[in-house]
Request: fold
Amino acid sequence: MKVYFNILLTIFTITMALTLFLTTHEPAPQPSKPVFLDKKPVPVSRGSRFLQQQDRNPRAADHCHRDNEICNYIMDGRNTTCCNNKCIDLGYDDDNCGACKKKCVFTETCCRGKCVNLAYDKRHCGWCNHKCMEGGFCIYGICDYA
Reply:
């Protein structure tokens, strides 16, 4: 029993000595300025990705000034009209559906210039121009659901 007590006392003494040494040990002095400031910055040759673009966005800041011919030229002959000084495709734009400033309701989408509910319209079931079979129904955007 005396041997076990001496072993435990020795382990306790060593543990206390290590604890005192580690807690009173002073850390290494810190340099006065950060290490990364000694290094020279690497030159960056990359510019803005917008400035590097060669092809111009066809809809970017094009003002049609109420001239539909400009819109047909800019939009590659698609069915476009000048609305609010911008070229708009009236067949599929939810904010200008069929006519300028004619907005579709939140639950509807513009298909072929008409506001339709894609969840229940059997001519536009789920997406524009997706027809259900004759006699079928469109429910939740799926033809003949359930």
